[in-house]
Amino acid sequence: MKNLISSRDIRGLLAQVRKSRLTGLIVLMMLLILILSLLRPDTFFSQTNLFNILKQASIVSIIAFGQTLIMVSGGIDLSVGYSLGLSGVILAVLVAKGLPPLVGILAGLAISCIIGLANGLIITQFKLPPFIVTLGLAKIARGVMYVLTRGYPIPVRDPFVIAVGNKYVGPFPIMSLIMLSLFVITAFLLSKTVFGLRTKAIGGNETAARLSGIKVTRHKIMLYVLTGLLCGIAGIIMAGRVNSGNPNSGVNFDLDSIAAVIVGGTAMSGGEGTVIGTLLGALILQIISNGLVLMNVSIYWQTIVAGVLIIAVCALDSISHANSQKS
Amino acid sequence: MNPATLLEMQSITKRFPGVLALDSVSFDLKMGEIHALIGENGAGKSTLMKVLGGVYQPEEGQILLEGEPVEFTSPRDALARSISVIYQEFNLVPTLSVAHNIFLGKELIGKGRIAADRRLMEREASKTMARLGMKGLDCSRLVRDLSIATQQLVEIAKAVYNDAKILVMDEPTAVLSPNETALLFTLMRDLQREGFSIIYISHRLSEVLDLADRITVLRDGKFVTTLDNHSHRVGERDLIRHMVGRDLQDIYPPREHVNVNETILEVKQLSKKGLFEDVSFSLARGEILGFSGLIGAGRSEVMKAIFGFDPADSGEILIDGKAVRIRSVGDAVRHRIALIPEDRKREGLSLVMTMAQNIVLASLQHVQRLGVISGREFAATTKRYIERLSIRPALPNRKIRDFSGGNQQKVVIAKWLANNPRIIILDEPTRGVDIGAKVEIYKLIHDLAEQGMAVIFISSEQLEVIGMCDRVLVMHNGRISGEFRREEVTEEALMAAAAGLAE
Predict the structure, then answer these.
(1) By the 8 A CB rule, do B41 and B433 touch?
(2) Tens of pLDDT along A298-317?
(3) Domain count, chain A
């Protein structure tokens, strides 16, 4: 009997996977969904669970979109997690003081933009590595949160904010809808606009970009402010989701966002990368952690699996890249 | 009696993705000779030496050392067989001392001690350095604090200490002043007398004729000929003919319709501390103005100042007779000045991006609407310049790093032509470019000048400057040290002015 799928088809698919990181990520995601659906048919592949995954991946995705732009430009932002946290804390503090929620939201967004602005200004004016500057700003933001809250969550009871973090439109979580619209905007920005092309040019070769008349300093500052804004939005959503401004809510988001970006195929060295890759990266990491929960694997093991996955995906990419260079 | 053959490289073939870097090249070295290896950039000289040094493994061919086949799979293997290669980029650790560099990896351990003996190493190092003519050099000094010439001597000292028999020097004089070059040549002859065999890569033909016993020419990865410098009467013209495979008049397009119009650019007393001083010149529409001189004479720095990348401290720039302020690249672009930088990989291209993306990088305002890239305009611009400059292969979505040097250079030029410049500055536009692409670039520069563009052409290759330019300025130590019209320029005159010996 003839095989339905010939070996040539498989080889063609493998070649495609090798050629394009995106195809590879989609195949990986499909495989994970298939395997988990077979292992846990009733619990994993249910509408509730799939939307849960989307919901759980939303906040880290929003930050990771910004992180993608920064990393494509050759930088890195370690302050995203605490910038997110501070945005929610400011909202909670101001609302607790009796100010209208809209003011709280705007102030939350503003504080994150200010952190981004500070990142951009210090990096470009003092010519310091982004790693150092954003690490410093992360510490400062964290400290400010503890000063404001003394370490305790401040409750948020505003129905609008809570709705953003918890309610659904039809079957769709509102926060995921926000995430998807931000995805469309940032993906368009990076792949279709002059702004995106300049971002890649700066990451690819900053000197060449400057010598091509691109205003590198201004552009970098804009990138960090934009990422700040995304952190602010993520912070408001987070505050709604946990009903509070929690000084610990940003912990680990810095590294998790970088993980999503890297799994998504953006080069650490800058110049190339896609927002859709980042979204897939965030979803894959979330699917794995969700699947492991359903299989009653302890939370500690999940972290180990995520670590292995990050290295494995990038190692595969590096090997296939080296192979395609040879042939 | 002929001296014995020390080294034989037989039919060496080496491929890189998309290029045949060495096509069955053979080369031999006799005991105690200085053998020059010449050829255009990209001819395969450095690749051949990297094969010898164990950096690259050839696909075909073999290496015989004293008649015995050897196989080098790493630089360590070559070193162990007494072959020392001094690359253009030195293999020194700048933050370590002279002595530590010389003994790197084989530190001397004193009697009854477990750690390296710094004093002993410094003593031994200064003995070696004294032997190379550097008596009294403090070998505890850090390498990064030494001049380039002294760093080169440290490299040679390393080789001497390694018991090298074969010393390969890749363009050792490119970074040296004439005095330092003379000292180096004396040293090389001394080493030759002591029994070293030296392979010497250079593109300075007069030096080659002066120094070498035999000369091997490579072109486009192929062996052309080996000439005996003692028995034949070899001249520079012969070497050039072998190097480029055609006569000189076929390389540089005839400059018949020289149509030099009104002055467009005037530079007055431009100075920047430590880089250049009191630089004044003017440039007319339709003119090709050459800038000659040694590497580091300040030519590129002057151009970067005019281009607003690294503005000057004082002085004036006039365009169309009006003083202008150029403090950023954006200002220069507004005055329709273009700069093709000297190092295309470091300064001209974004290597991870595609050919098309690189082409539009300086003229993004022409391919967008409301900040969104217009696919149609983008494709049209790219197509126009691919055709106009015959960029090959014509694959706009291929990454630029996968193109040859010549085509990469065309892309950098296309990037700036897309911006409609009136003044175009080309800094070493033919470095690392094969002869075919070179001729195309010369032709293009001529066409641009004939269309009325004002061209500044920087080159360290004197023949190129002589062949291309209407007028030549020479810089030495940050100052203009000579000016020649096309009719009166000679290699000797350029050389003298570059060395600061004119007038």
Answers:
(1) yes
(2) 888 888 888 898 888 888 77
(3) 1
Q: Do B352 and A212 touch (CB under 8 A)?
A: no
What letter would DSSP give residue B109? B
Nearest to residue A73, comparing CAs of A182, A169, A214?
A: A214
Strand partners, B12: B25
**A201 is a domain residue:** yes
Nearest CA-CA partner of B199 in B37, B408, B327: B37
- Residue type at position B199: I
Across the interface, whether the CB atoms of A194 and B346 are under 8 A apart is answered no
Q: What is the pTM of this model?
A: 0.82
How far apart are the C-alpha atoms of A226 and A228, rounded to whole Å? 5
Decide if A8 is inside a domain: no
DSSP, residue by residue, B252-301: SPP-------SEEEEEEEEEETTTEEEEEEEEETT-EEEEEE-TTSSHHH
A-chain CB neighbours of B348 within 8 Å are 208, 211
Residues A89, A249: Cα–Cα separation, whole Å? 9
Beta-bridge partners for B15 = B20
In this structure, the number of other CB atoms found within 10 A of the CB of residue B33 comes to 19
Q: CB B360 to CB A193 under 8 A? A: no
- Cβ <8 Å between A192 and B351: no
The answer to whether residue A242 is domain-embedded is yes
Domain B5-249 = CATH 3.40.50.1820: no
* Touching B: A residues 200-259, CB under 8 Å: 200-201, 203-205, 207-215
Q: Measured between CB atoms, does B330 come within 8 Å of chain A?
A: yes
Residue ranges matching CATH 3.40.50.300 in chain B: 5-249, 262-336+424-503
Hey, which residues does B338 pair with through a beta bridge? B424
Percent helix / strand / coil, chain B, rounded to 5: 35, 25, 40
Predicted pLDDT of residue A327: 44
The domain that holds A173 is classified in CATH as 1.10.3470
Question: Is A208 close to B364, i.e. CB distance below 8 A?
Answer: no
Q: What is the DSSP letter of B344?
A: I
* Of B17, B353, B362, Cβ closest to residue A213: B362
* Domain coverage including residue A137: 57-267+275-290+298-315
The residue of chain A with its CA nearest to that of B331 is A213
Interface of B with A in 419-458 (CB under 8 A): none
Q: Do residues B389 and B347 touch, judged by C-beta distance below 8 A?
A: no
A61 burial level (CB within 10 Å; 0-12, 13-18, 19+): buried
Q: Which of A203, A207, A215 sits opposite B347 (nearest CB)?
A: A207
Structure token pair of residue A97: 């003081």
Task: Answer yes or no: are the C-beta atoms of B333 and B425 closer than 8 Å.
Answer: no
Q: Residue A205: its chain B contacts at CB < 8 A?
A: 346-347, 349-351
Per-residue CA distances from A33 to A28, A43, A284, A295, B222 (Å): 9, 12, 9, 14, 56
The angle subtended at Cα B62 by Cα B58 and Cα B64, nearest 5°, is: 135
Task: Scan for tokens 């490289």, then name that residue.
Answer: B9
pLDDT for B73-99, tens place per residue? 988 889 888 899 988 778 889 899 999
Please indicate if any CB of chain B lies within 8 Å of the CB of A271.
yes
Per CB-CB distance under 8 Å, the chain B contacts of A272 are: 352-353
**Tens digits of residue pLDDT in B314-326:** 999 999 999 999 9
**Residues B177, B155: Cα–Cα separation, whole Å:** 18
Classify residue A229: in a domain, yes or no.
yes
The interface predicted TM-score (ipTM) is 0.86
Q: Which CATH architecture has domain B262-336+424-503?
A: 3-Layer(aba) Sandwich (3.40)
Can you tell me the distance from the alpha carbon of A109 to that of A72, in angstroms, rounded to the nearest whole number? 24
CB contact under 8 A, B349 and A205: yes
Touching A: B residues 337-396, CB under 8 Å: 339, 341, 346-353, 357, 360-362, 364, 368, 371-373
Nearest to A204 among B307, B353, B368 (CB): B353
